[in-house]
Amino acid sequence: MRRALLICLIVLSVVGGCAADDGAGDRSIPVPIGEAVEIGGVSVQVERTEVADSVNYGLRRGRFLVVIVTLRSEREAPLEYGPLDWRVYTEDGATVEPIVVGEDDRLGFGTLKRGDTATGRLAFELGGYAPRGILEFRSVDGAVEVAWQLSDPEMVPSTEAPPVSSGP
Predict the structure, then answer these.
(1) Which of 49, 113, 164, 168 lies 20 to 30 Å (CA to CA) from residue 7?
(2) Cα separation of 106 and 56, whole Å?
(3) What is the pTM of this model?
């Protein structure tokens, strides 16, 4: 499994998905969950990850990786964003795309202007895959690319994940 993760990291690094340049030089490894990354005038943070047994107010059952993310823009050009900008690459070598969730606190589609912030929840249906590997964000315009290391997220015991806190 470590070999598959290493291959994934190498492949993603070659295509530019695993490196984040925050102005302090090249970062060739994924950043830890909770760490905000400043790149291209945008701050991208994965606040937390958890595994839940349902989403959509408990209507969709299974095994899901739930991710709480925040995007802040300080760049001149607007930043188009949405759930399809995100991917999970499991240590087993699978690519998992986000599913549409109906919760009010989901990360939807939008445009951030300078000074704007968006926070929301994303869900990835894991099936039999372990919730370990790489979580990647790649903006539509290609200006912002960053990846986070996923390792054993917290299991949420209830059938509904806790709400996202919407800070100032």
Answers:
(1) 49
(2) 10
(3) 0.74
